[in-house]
Amino acid sequence: MPDLLAQTLALPGLWALVTTVFVAGAVYGFAGFGAALIFMPVASTLVPFEVAVAAFAISAVSSLVTVLPRAWGQVDRRGVAVMIVCATLSASLGLWVLRVSDLIVLRWTVIAVTASTLLALCAGWRYATPPTVAARSAIGFATGFVGGATGLLGPVMVLFQLAGRDSVATSRATALVFLTLTSLLLVPLMAMQGLLTLPAVVLGLILLLPYGAGARLGAVLFRPGLERFYRSVAYFIILVAIILGLPVWD
Q: What's the pTM?
């Protein structure tokens, strides 16, 4: 264990990972989404893809104390619970895809999913009718599968949430609760499929504090009246992460 910790601390890209996960946490605490969109494209160029997915899930545990308590009282708990259950059920299939698929293909998939989500969010598409239980279930299943296979839990759910008519505070809180709890539930699923390796756990524990600090900072900076500003900041950082995470830079 001490040798593994020393090896992880000597990782050439560790400081880049620490910086990236801090920025990802700050955007997550501020906007309610975007952490994995920022972290995964960059991290997948520095460590094995499956290690990046598992380490990020471990680091996200810090959100249980940094952003979840305040967000919990602002959401439709029944609606969020439906999506969390469905996402957890489908995540196992996504994790299996992660385990058996070509990692370069998955990295390009991360870029494609991230870029598509960013374009859709920037386009400002909205739906007018309240979501049904069936719609929430479908979104949960799709989110879990994509999240398990690519490490990106946010894209499908965030697009669905931001396309609705909820207030800024409610949309942000819903995304925070869903992403935090679903990420936590992914950890045992990863362990069952052999993806939660010791190197990933050590790296995740190292990243836990900077991620939590970033999320706490972002939460302090959040103001409901600054929707356009905080979305613009998040979109810009996501765009930079997409460019830096392109496999062509390997």
A: 0.83
